[in-house]
Amino acid sequence: MADAHDSSSKHLCCPICLETFNSPKCLPCMHTFCEKCICKHATILSKENKHPATISCPVCSKVIQTKENPAEWAAKLPNNLIVLPPSASNRADVNAPVYCEPCASVDQRQISEAFCVTCSEYLCQTCHSYHNRLKTSRDHQIKVQADLEHQIANSVKDAMYKCQKHNNELTYFCSDHREFFCTKCALDDHRKCEELLPVEDRLNDEILMQDNIKHTLQNLDLLRKMFLLLTKNRKKTLESIQQQKLHVIESIKDWTSFIKERVDIFETITMQELEHICKNETIIISEQDGECKRSIAAIETSQAMLLESKTSDNKCKIFVTMTKLSQQLLKYLQQYDMIESRSNDIKIKFQGDQNLQIVQNDCSLGQVSCEVSRIPRLAHDFRFEGHCMMPSRVKLNSVVTFNVETSSDKKACNITSGACLSDRKIVLYDDGNWKIKLFDKHFRFLSHLDLYIKSNICVLDRNTLGIASGSRIHLVSVTNSLVKIKSIDYDEACFGLASYEQKLIVYTSADKILMYNASHKVINIIQSFESGNNRQISMSTAGQRILCAVKDKLITIDMVDKRLESFEVNDLKDITITADKNGIIYCCGRETSNIVLFSPEGRHLGTLLSPEHGIENPTCIFLNIRNNKLYVFQSCRTSILSDA
Question: Is the pTM of this model over 0.70?
C-alpha cells in the first residue's frame, strides 16, 4: 500500500492549474481536479453551452450532468482521498496506510484495497465483497486503488498536452505570455500579441537533444538530493527546537523561583521599613501632642490667675500679674511657633519600581525571544551540467540592432543609463551628447532633454521618471516629449537610482544606499559599503531586492529582512546589472563584452550574449519586462535588442 502511494505522489498536479491538488474532486469519468478549478471550468462552460446543466471533462471530454449551480455541484463531488492535498503535509506520516471506512465506524482497522466512487469511501477486501453483493450498492462504481492511481497519473499526463480552456490540442506558442494554447485561444486571447508561432516552428529551439535530456534528468536528481539535504537539516532544526524549548522552560522556572524569592525578601524588608517609619512618626507626633497639652494647661492656669486678680482690690497684685502674663504670652507664642513648624501632614504610601509598571505591556522581568539568523549554505558536491538549467525564459531567441543617433548629435553616442516605460517607450541618457533621449517602441526618435551632468534614470510610475544628475534629482513627465516637473537638491551626489513603493533608493557618493520618502526626506539607511568604483543599483521587478554592482562584485539586499549577500563575478569586469520579473539577474561586463545570467541566489546560469553576437564594450543594459526584451547599449551609435 505504501509503495502504491509513493508511485501516485509523482502525479499530484491538477490538470487545469498544473499545481498541487487543493481539495481534489473526482468526476464520474474518474479524472481528478481541484474543487475551485472544476467549479470555474463548469461556470465558464455553463455560460457558453446551450445546455447549462452539462459540462465536458477537461481531459476526456465526456459529457457530465451538473443539474445545479457549479459551486454546489463541485462541492458535492466525491473527494479523491488518494491524492493528498497540501494540508496533508502537516500530518505526522503522509505515507500511512489508508484504512477501510466502514470498518473504522465499528472501531476496526483494516487496510483498504478499493475505493467506491459513488459512496466516496475506502473499502477493505471484505467490505468490497459485501458492497458488490448488496442490492443497493452492487451497481456502484468501484475502483481498485492501483488502477485508480494509474488512471490519475495518465489523466495528468494527457492534460499537459491539451488546452486548459478548450481541451484542444496545443498548436501555438506566444512569446509575449510564454505559454502554449490552441487555435481558439489564439483568436480569443492573443489577438494583440506580437509573436504567435506555430509549435512546429519552435521545435528546433524548444525540444532538447538527447544529451540535454540526460543532463536535465541528472540535474533534477541532484536538486532532489539537495532538497533531501534541506529536509534533513529542517528535521534537525525541529528536534533542536524541542530541546531548546525544554531548556527554556527550566530557565523560566528557575528565573520565576528566583524572582519569587526576591519578592518575598522584598516584602519582608519593605514591611519592616513601614513599621519603622510609622513608629518614628508616631513618637514625634505624640511628643508634639504632649507639648501642646502642657501649653494648654499653662494657658488655662494663667487665665485663672488673671480672673482671680481681676476681682482683687489690690492694684499692686493686678499690675504684677499682668506684667508676668504679658511676658508669659510671648513664651506661649514662641512655643506655638516651634511646635507648629514641626507639624507635618504625614502620608505614608508605597511606590513600586517604575520599570515594573510596564510589565503588562512589555515584560521587564524577562522575555522569551527567538533569534533567527540565516544558516550557512549546506555544503554539497553537486554540480549542474548541461545548458538545460538556464530557464527557457532567458534563452536567446533573436538579436536586432538599432541606431540611437539623432540629427542633433554632435558627438558619438555613449548610452550610460536607460529605462523602458509601460507603453514601451525607451528613455536613454547619452553621455556623449549630454542628452536624455526619448524613443518609441520602434526606436523612432520623439524628443530630448539637455542635461549637462552624467545622469542615471529610473521609472517612478507610468509616466514619470527620476533622473539623478550629480547631487540633484529631476522629476520628468513623459508623453511624446520630456517635460521637467521638479528638481530636488540632495546633500550628496547620486551615483545609482532605483524606485520602490513610491520611494527613491539612492546610491550616494558616500557609498551608502539611502531610502527617501515622497517628501524627499531620508527615512532609512539601507546599507553602507566600502569605498568602490562602478557604483550602480537596480531594483528587482517584484521590489523585493536591491541589486548592487560595486567594483566587480554582485551584491543583493533583501528589502524584507535586510539580508545582504555578495557574489564574486570572476568572468566579468566593470559590471552593470538588471533583473527580470522572475528574479533572474543579468550582469553585463563592460570590459569583457558579455552578459551572464545568475539566479537570485547567485548561482551561475550561463552566458546569454558575447562578442560573437556583436557585443563590444557595452555601457548599459535594461529589460522591458512586458515582453522580456533586453536592451544593450554600446560605446557607439547602435544598440542591440535581444529577445530573451
Answer: no
